[in-house]
């Protein structure tokens, strides 16, 4: 480490402490000194952006976040959503995968304590409650894919269905926590929008608890989900939702102050229908608390449409127009 980088590090440590104390101006002064000493240090530019934003200088804060992106295009610290919330960039279609991966790797060991005990998170339980009226739509021992399985909170609940369950998550740290519970047949690290090919080809049930909040445009994700379900299979998920803005003023998705996406119920229904799903249930619920207030969302259950039977002129036999590889 160079002398300049060491000096920048000392200044940035104090700047972070001042940020924690709510002193944006003081933090910005030290962060400016840090980037002057180490101008290629991405994290220093991000801290400067945070400090300037807190101090009320949004334009300068946006400029610092852009400088951060020059040095870290993968956006591990989440500069692009910060720029969108400042009105300095368009709303992204999703949060940066590197940002989501690092976020959950960092909090994995304390995830359940923070989310369940402190924030009252209840997404998996809400999914289970919604499924109860439709359990007859599942076979006796269903195959299940837990999208964004995290530490296995949903797996603990859905394992009572008695089938086999696979898990997928972008964070190796979260997967390590889930693996220790011994609930899953297979656990894979990967992106929920494009599940890896070495998972089972078709499932009876896909669950996604507090996962789609990190994606904005869900059209392609629902298409991927449809490709992973058997005909008649179920997709069960929670989303944070914009339930207050009038219908004619809502966008399909928007970023909330917590840097998670909120979705328009009408857009969700359109995306599902456009990818061959029928809506079975849509329940409004409080998913967790944030700053003491409930986070409103939806619990949605959709079913993949069955292939329509067609009659052929040769003998009048009725059969499905195609056979899905791996179906059944």
Automatic annotation (TrEMBL):
Recorded hits in PANTHER family, A to Z, give: METHYLTRANSFERASE, UBIQUINONE BIOSYNTHESIS O-METHYLTRANSFERASE, MITOCHONDRIAL
Question: Which organism is this entry from?
Answer: Limibacillus halophilus
UniProt keyword annotation of Transferase present: yes
Name of the featured protein: Putative TPR repeat methyltransferase
The record, for InterPro entries, names: SAM-dependent_MTases_sf, TPR-like_helical_dom_sf, TPR_rpt
Supply the alphabetized keyword list.
Methyltransferase, S-adenosyl-L-methionine, TPR repeat, Transferase
Gene Ontology MF terms in the entry: methyltransferase activity
Question: What are the recorded Gene Ontology BP terms?
Answer: methylation
Report whether Methyltransferase shows up as a keyword of the record.
yes
Which parts are the TPR repeats? 42-75
């Amino acid at each position: 480490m160079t002398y300049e980088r060491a000096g920048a590090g000392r200044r940035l440590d104090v700047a972070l402490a001042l940020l924690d104390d709510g002193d944006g101006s003081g933090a910005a002064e030290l962060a400016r000194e840090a980037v002057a000493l180490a101008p290629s240090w991405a994290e220093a530019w991000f801290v400067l952006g945070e400090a300037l934003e807190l101090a009320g200088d949004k334009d300068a804060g946006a400029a610092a976040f852009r400088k951060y992106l020059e040095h870290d295009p993968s956006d591990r610290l989440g500069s692009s959503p910060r720029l969108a919330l400042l009105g300095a960039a368009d709303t992204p279609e999703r949060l940066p995968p590197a940002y989501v991966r690092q976020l959950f790797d960092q909090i994995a060991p304390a995830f359940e304590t923070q989310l369940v005990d402190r924030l009252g998170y209840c997404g998996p339980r809400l999914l289970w409650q919604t499924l109860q009226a439709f359990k007859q739509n599942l076979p006796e021992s269903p195959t299940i894919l837990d999208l964004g399985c995290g530490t296995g909170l949903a797996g603990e609940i859905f394992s009572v269905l008695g089938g086999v369950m696979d898990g997928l998550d972008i964070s190796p740290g979260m997967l390590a926590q889930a693996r220790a519970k011994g609930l899953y047949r297979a656990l894979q690290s990967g992106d929920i929008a494009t599940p890896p090919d070495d998972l089972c080809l078709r499932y009876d049930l896909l669950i996604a608890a507090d996962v789609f909040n990190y994606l904005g445009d869900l059209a392609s994700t629902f298409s991927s989900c449809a490709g992973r379900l058997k005909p008649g299979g179920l997709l069960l998920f929670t989303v944070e939702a914009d339930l207050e803005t009038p219908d004619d003023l809502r966008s399909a998705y928007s970023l909330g102050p917590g840097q998670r996406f909120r979705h328009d119920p009408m857009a969700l229904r359109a995306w599902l229908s456009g990818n061959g799903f029928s809506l079975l249930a849509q329940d409004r619920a409080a998913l967790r608390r944030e700053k003491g207030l409930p986070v409103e969302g939806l619990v949605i259950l959709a079913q993949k449409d069955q292939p329509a039977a067609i009659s052929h002129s040769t003998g009048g036999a009725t059969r499905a127009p195609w056979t899905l590889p791996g179906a059944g």
